[in-house]
Write a structure and sequence with these properties.
With 151 residues, the protein is α/β, with parallel strands linked by helices. The chain contains six helices and five strands. Helices cover 31% and strands 13% of the residues. A five-stranded parallel sheet has the order 2-1-4-3-5. The two termini are 19 Å apart.
Length: 151
């Protein structure tokens, strides 16, 4: 079973480096440019949430999907504080180590693709996470680096 991946894109970063856009090009996500058109169900990945994503959230993700928010880390706090994601369960990820070239090794500073893949791993969807990470040169390294936290 595959979990629906939806991404709210704010186009705040270099489009050539945007992992959300790349996921959409490969048919691995459905991207939205407006909160009005985004179906508000499932789990929203929010690095400022009070609740941490866990294995027990798997059912919620399977039923409602996972929503990522693609924005610049320089504007993340302001962006997330303005979002009112009613109908979505907000969750932050545990400490995950990014492998992307921009923030490699900076705990928590994940790309949208790394965040989505992490959430999928916590929700027991390894094949889907591997498929997403396979479209990035650094993707397999990301999965290997963090393999111990998803067990």
């Amino acid at each position: 079973m595959s979990i629906e991946i939806r991404i709210l894109c704010f186009d705040q970063d270099d489009p050539k480096k945007c992992t959300a856009k790349r996921m959409e090009r490969f048919g691995l996500s459905r991207n939205y440019s407006s909160l009005r058109t985004l179906p508000l169900q499932g789990i929203a990945l929010d690095p400022f949430s009070e609740r941490v994503l866990s294995n027990s959230d798997s059912i919620l993700a399977e039923v409602g999907g996972i929503v990522g928010v693609d924005c610049s880390w320089n504007m993340a706090e302001a962006t997330f504080s303005k979002l009112k994601l009613m109908g979505l369960e907000s969750r932050k990820l545990p400490d995950v180590i990014p492998a992307n070239p921009v923030n490699s090794g900076k705990i928590g500073k994940l790309t949208t693709a790394e965040a989505i893949a992490s959430a999928l791993m916590f929700c027991h969807q390894k094949e889907q996470a591997v498929e997403i990470m396979s479209i990035f040169k650094w993707g397999p390294a990301f999965l290997e680096m963090n393999s111990s936290i998803w067990k």
